[in-house]
Amino acid sequence: MPTRVCCCCSALRPRYKRLVDNIFPEDPKDGLVKADMEKLTFYAVSAPEKLDRIGSYLAERLSRDVVRHRSGYVLIAMEALDQLLMACHSQSIKPFVESFLHMVAKLLESGEPKLQVLGTNSFVKFANIEEDTPSYHRRYDFFVSRFSAMCHSCDSDPETRTEIRIAGIRGIQGVVRKTVNDELQATIWEPQHMDKIVPSLLFNMQKIEEVDSRIGPPPSPSAADKEENPAMLAENCLRELLGRATFGNMNNAVRPVFAHLDHHRLWDPNEFAVHCFKVIMYSIQAQYSHHVIQEILGHLDARKKDSPRVRAGIIQVLLEAVAIAAKGSIGPTVLEVFNTLLKHLRLSVEFEARDLQGESISSANLNTSSKDSDEKIVQNAIIQTIGFFGSNLPDYQRSEIMMFIMGKVPVFGTSTHTLDISQLGDLGTRRIQIMLLRSLLMVTSGYKAKTIVTALPGSFLDPLLSPSLMEDYELRQLVLEVMHNLMDRHDNRAKLRGIRIIPDVADLKIKREKICRQDTSFMKKNGQQLYRHIYLGCKEEDNVQKNYELLYTSLALITIELANEEVVIDLIRLAIALQDSAIINEDNLSMFHRCGIMALVAAYLNFVSQMIAVPAFCQHVSKVIEIRTMEAPYFLPEHIFRDKCMLPKSLEKHDKNLYFLTNKIAESLGGSGYSVERLSVPYVPQVTDEDRLSRRKSIVDTVSIQVDILPNSNPSDDVWRLCLLKLNHQLD
User: Fold this and answer.
1) Are 198 and 159 within 8 A, CB to CB?
2) Mapped to the 3 state alphabet, what secondary structure does 112-167 carry?
3) 732/729 Cα distance (integer angstroms)
4) Rounded Cα gap, residues 416 and 173, in angstroms
5) Which of 439, 510, 519 has its CA nearest to residue 481?
6) What is the pTM (predicted TM-score) of this model?
7) Cβ(96)–Cβ(51) under 8 Å?
């Protein structure tokens, strides 16, 4: 029951007190006395200078009723306050607001969930009121702390716990709406507030049963979900908060996300982390995307000594962020992204190499195997991120990144690379070469340059074709695939996939253009370097079928994209030289590899003969292939690369009709106007200083054999002269 006073005393009381007292009925179940509430509202609007006193008196009554657990009268007092707030918008409302916030704080401090929810609802209504003038002194520190605490409610009753958490989230949303648009209320963005608000929202977002893993932006939750589901309400609040963030306070809002994910160990598995950063990237303004990417990179650096799966989780989050940022503005962080990723790629390879060189007892080996596979997860995640980021860059930036990555590739005997490999050892260095080339392959995918010199400048081509990158069959495969990405400007590579004898090349519908002057100049300057790489690559003893397929594709792409009449002659000379090397076998290759080279030459000459469409040349190639099909199928790609192919014991006793003959080719091409004088000069690869650094046998030995062939000798005897020289060498 409210305190009643006698008529004499009542007449002496201030009018505002009498009006306030009259709104409270004798029985709180009757609710607010509406008629008297209208009188109080009219009085407050007419005499706004009294609002301060009205508010103070209402606060006094409410505090007393809260202590005495008179919930009914507390509800009536808050209803009255809400109505007064909505009705009064004058400047005098400022002191009244202080009384109102004091009453809300009292309710939030009470231990009764019902009153906490009541206080929150009143605060949310107040937050939606646009005040005429800003407040210079009002702070919401208490409300941030209290609402954040409510978000973590652990009440034993599930319904009550959910109700309190929803109230806490709505309260935080109210604080955000009340402060973020007011330049004088910038304190909400301070770290001490963000460190409470953001983790509270993330804590409730974790309760989503199925985290959305879509590539596209998460859909906006429905109105019902916002009000009833703490997880959806928290996510909506976080979006609203981030959507209001500006350049100066973006980092303060994002950093607590990392702290929360670290504390709760949510990087492995990282589904929730990915979901969080999708929400972040789609909520912030597009021009601030690079801030988030920089923060992820910084956190990756901070956690560089964590387990591989944690690092992989962070990198996968970076990939998702980059995927979204690439659609808008990435900003000035391009080189920083690649530099950081390549640094962590080196660290991962270093950790992997260190583990492999570590303890040798059986139990340790099991752990090493597990770590090794985990590090590969990190490496694959880095390469995938580099590839996706690079493929979304404009061409001018992509060419810079290609040069940047190539500059990191370790090349033995030189110090031009900028990646520290001092701790890697030979195995680690080989591994980092493979990883960097895989990254380069991803970046060059889809790259289209108008001229080949733009795609393959000398500063890029020289290290790419270095002998140091030919020591391993996988390295050679990657180098060739990178070249294919840059050479194939008309998307013909898919049509050439797989080494085979093509019956009719016209059926492939090869796309090509007339060779431009810049491409011709490129081949005059760099052609011998390309031929040398292909020639030596064919003679490697660890080649597998894929190597031969890629070498065949290289020859075909050069023919399509870069070949004029002079280049065609050089390519034919190269093919004949490869055939001769397989017959002579001064590198002591196995029979499989010798037959593989013969099959490669057959496939290429079949292709080039049809591309230049010289009937006599096509006839000679077809005849040799036909004889091989009947007498030596192991010289054809369809047979030699098939399982359990029967191999010959030697090649010296084969009929010369099984080989492509220089004199026949020269005769057929000369009749069609080609300048065939150079066909009589055997192809000899250039000798470079880097050959001394390579493990392979010096190609000077090959030169010493071939230079004995006189330029004016009969081309028809070339192969047999080489065979005799080889046999004499063996007899000696």
Assistant:
1) no
2) CHHHHHHHHHHHHHHHCCCCCCCCCCCCCHHHHHHHHHHHCCCCCCHHHHHHHHHH
3) 5
4) 55
5) 439
6) 0.78
7) yes
Structure tokens at 298: 């910084």
DSSP classification of residue 420: -
* pLDDT score of 45 more than 80: no
Give residue-wise pLDDT tens across range 126-184. 887 776 655 656 778 899 999 999 999 988 898 999 999 999 999 999 998 888 766 55
Question: Distance (Å, rounded) from C-alpha 348 to C-alpha 33?
Answer: 73
CA distance 594 to 180: 74
Contact in structure between 408 and 463 (CB atoms under 8 Å):
no
Structure tokens at 707: 């230079």
With CA atoms as reference, report the closest residue to 208 among 236, 240, 232, 242. Answer: 232
Task: Encode 544-585 in three state secondary structure.
Answer: CHHHHHHHHHHHHHHHHHHCCHHHHHHHHHHHHHHHHHHHHC
pLDDT tens for residues 617-647? 999 999 999 999 999 999 999 999 987 788 8
**What distances in angstroms separate CA 396 from CA 235, 330, 440, 454, 517, one per listed residue?**
39, 15, 15, 10, 22
Q: Evaluate if residue 113 carries a pLDDT over 60.
A: yes
Q: What is the model's pLDDT at position 89?
A: 60
For residue 247, count CB atoms less than 10 angstroms from its CB and return exposed for 0-12, middle for 13-18, buried for 19 or more. Answer: exposed
In terms of Cα–Cα distance, which of 478, 495, 467, 648 is closest to 546? Answer: 478
Q: Work out the widest C-alpha separation in the chain, in whole angstroms.
A: 139
Quick check: bond before 269 cis, omega within 30?
yes
Integer Cα distance of 667 and 480 in angstroms: 33
709, 693 contact by CB (below 8 A): no
Share of the chain above pLDDT 70, in %: 81
Place of tokens 């050479």: 487
Contact 3, 20 (CB under 8 A): no
Every domain of the chain and the residues it spans: 451-692
Q: What is d(CA 21, CA 61) in angstroms, rounded to the nearest whole number?
A: 9
Bin 655: left if φ > 0, else alpha if -120 < ψ < 50, else beta.
beta
Q: What is the token pair recorded at 694?
A: 């390579």
Q: Residue 334's closest CA among 274, 403, 283?
A: 403
Question: 195, 82, 205: which is closest to 144 by C-alpha?
Answer: 195
- Encoded tokens for 293: 């990417």
The reported pLDDT for the residue numbered 362 is: 42
Neighbours of 450 (CB within 10 A): 12
